[in-house]
Request: fold
Amino acid sequence: MTLAVNLANLVDALGTDGTIADAKSVSDKPNTSTGYFDLPSGTTGQRPASPTTGMVRHNSSLGLIETWNGTTWTGLGGSATISSTAPASPTDGALWFNSTTGYLYVYNTNSWVLSGFSGSYSDLTNKPTLSTVATTGSYTDLTNKPTTFPPASVSDQANTSTGYFGVPTGTTAQRPESPTTGATRINTTTNYIEMYYGGAWVNVIYIGLVTLSYTGTATLTSVGNYNTLTFTGTTGSITATNVPSGALIEYLLVAGGGGGGNTMGGGGGGGGVLYGTITPTVNTQYSFTIGPGGAGATSRAANGLNGTATTAFGLTAVGGGGGASWTPITGSAGGSGGGGSSGSGAGGAGTSGQGFAGATATGSGGGGGGAGGIAPAGTAGVAGSGGPGFNWQSFGTFYGGGGGAGSGSGYSSNINAPGGTGGGGSGGTHSTAGNPGTPNTGGGGGGGGYGSADYNGGLGGSGVILIRYRFQ
Reply:
């Protein structure tokens, strides 16, 4: 057999005694081959029994090149093992692609670590929960545990967002089983924001929305989340086209004011006022009528006429009482009573829950009562002012004010006694008639004066209806 030897390479590799003279003569050589370098290859079980640092081999079990680092076999690279179960006896750096889930893992420090996946965290079917993050030790032992925040760092902060803050929403049946004080939610059964306090759920604010259609002469105004319809005609109606559970509408019914009396006449009483709420029935039309004011007295022998009632929702607001004239002396009863006349005539009675009595005359006439209070007592010879009206929703808008009384000749009060806040007309002087109440307020007419002639009482103001409901 013939052995071919490359003498140049042999001389470089061998010493004079035929042994390898220097490791560098083998390893520290440039390699210009375009072929391959054949490494030993074997399974994990076929690894050398006593490896030395720097050994390199191909691990056919793991599909990667590995080296002995003096302590353990470490992967140098290669393709990942593709299987539905993790490879047995992996080394740090080994790659495994789970063919069932499609996730890539890297082996590190005795465990497989998720390296990458497509999709989002919510796509994971076996994502860890806090209870399974660690199998030994306690939560405080974790080095990569989620950051926690004290409550004050979350709640006691200024919020400059112009977006929104989501509030839990659900039915009454879906309330938490064990709520804590301060728990807040939207209850879709009752349409209230509710809070758990004192051992019970408490309604905080109603947020149900109502939609209405209407007929008649009305003005629509919006303030905040509420619409108000002010009806100023003689008839009208509303129909609720959407009414959530528990929804309410507010109403204010004001009758026509009473007319003022003649000749030191008493002021007319303010129209009766009714305020409240109803829960309307969907698509039911609610019709109503609005009463006009009573005429002022044109003779000293008869009182001013009472105002006409306003009706809605099965309720009746009573018209204001007419003011007394010279002869009848006593004011007429009504929603609010008319004022007295002729020196000491008594005021008329008001209707309970709707208005107050008129004032007794003190020389000149007495003022008419108002829906918000009695007419103030006059002084000797001074015509009395009208009583105050009802303050709608504390908005500073008054209705049903009493009329001021007429002044008498020879008495000290040759002035226009003012009508009550809420549309009451002022009284006449020694030589003028009483002034009318303001339309659509239910204010009483002012009493006529007395001087060189008799003077008529003023016309009572017409009534009005207000409907207020939440629309947004």
